[in-house]
Amino acid sequence: MSVTHLGMPTVPGKGNIVEPSPFPQVAELELGKIQMRTNLARATSTIRGKRLARVAEVPNWEELRDHGSAVKTAVMDRLPELLEQFEHNVTARGGHVHWARDADEANAIIARLVEEHAPVLDTGRREVIKVKSMATQEIGLNEHLEEIGIDAYETDLAELIVQLGHDRPSHILVPAIHRNRREIREIFLREMPDVDPDLTDDPTALAEASRKHLRRKFLSTPVAVSGANFGIAETGTLSVVESEGNGRMCVTLPETLITVMGIEKILPRFADLGTFMQLLPRSSTGERMNPYTSFWTGVTPGDGPQNVHVVLLDNGRTRALADEHGRQALHCIRCSACMNVCPVYERTGGHAYGSVYPGPIGAILSPLLTGTDAGANDTLPYASSLCGACYDACPVKIDIPQMLVRLRNEDTETKARKTGRLPRTQLDAALTAASWVMSDGRRMAVAEKSLPLAHLLTGSEGIRSLPGVAGKWTHSRTLPQPPEQSFRSWWKKERGTR
């Protein structure tokens, strides 16, 4: 298979980028989880503060954002060419490149490679270790491997917490952001073999427990699966950016390394990393630089993995690429800055989005990859107040609010084509009635005559409950007490004129 298939937009196979239930329905349930909301508010507030401090240190921050955006725009314009260049350079250096149209193909390729290079253990199963990877979560790799007798062990601490807790990630960068250290201790005591029963919830003790748990896997497992933050077309180089050192262990110790990379992660030149290595750590963790950044290019005899494979994943990306306006969602460098400033994400958490891509970027990326008519993905573009904070925070200037509006329009048009008419709601009817009243001075004057009675009946506590569609407003807020008279009445009384 080659890059030529990119000319036809693809539809994702099975995976974890389709919202199974409408966002409003799930969000309402998540809002009731007080501990989760407390954990999220504390964590996102801390990350926001660190990011602002690190960004303020860079006098040319806006110029860096402009350059990062320009590079990603150029990548989208030249994507087939750059992918072929990348494939050529990986192959020339002893690596192997595999093309996967969707989740099913990617999972099949990886499973075959693991079966070729990982021995069957006494348990009758095979094992692989993994570096944190959004792409493998997107395709549901762990679940697929488990079904065919392969156990995939997450080595990133947050991913390990999620895996041991039989949970789902709720954040791109910090998958276990919804858990506090007391909950993590309970998970370790319950699920981690040979853990010290006197383990405390001190972060240092928890990190040490995870290191002991993973050390044997690092030293004994011959196959690793990684994601990639960047792939360099010019050299065939791959890069993983992380902060714990587990990535370094995974990409150097095993004999076989399988990297799953979304096709949009390509950069043209190694020199382009100079911009992104400044944008990414400051935007994601509020650090000046990453603790661990690993690069590898093909195979080096006697040093590192000797079987190097790269799976280039489409899974709907050519569909997004074909959208003239939506393709900028593929600029995303997975920093999570948009989530950390989003008031909707902070209150509902990542699980409400269904997809492995939560928050503002998930609200546009998932529908663009799958179409708004996949599952309940048509509800994701409405998971926003359109406040614009995500655009201000995005290091590559993805205009998320604009795309949310466009996707809402696409959803409306899709439903109109199916039914032959535009969908109408209670809100539409209410707004039509309000427009009719407010468009005529006499009708408005008649409506204003009810203000004295409304003022009297409401009292100083305001309006706590309204019927019908208006009840959605008072469900979470109280309207102030209506005035005793309208401005029109006051003017007539004070000035004697209309």
TrEMBL record:
Domain of life: Bacteria
Bias (Polar residues) ranges: 476-488
Keywords: 4Fe-4S, Electron transport, Iron, Iron-sulfur, Metal-binding, Repeat, Transport
Location of the region described as Disordered in the Swiss-Prot/TrEMBL record: 474-498
Claim: Metal-binding is one of the keywords in the record: yes
UniProt domain LUD: residue ranges: 83-312
Pfam (any one): LUD_dom
Iron-sulfur keyword on record: yes
UniProt cross-references to InterPro entries, sorted A to Z: 4Fe4S_Fe-S-bd, 4Fe4S_Fe_S_CS, FTHF_cligase-like_sf, Helical_ferredxn, LUD_dom, LutB/LldF, NagB/RpiA_transferase-like
4Fe-4S ferredoxin-type domain: residues covered: 329-398
Protein name: LutB/LldF family L-lactate oxidation iron-sulfur protein
Organism: Brevibacterium pityocampae
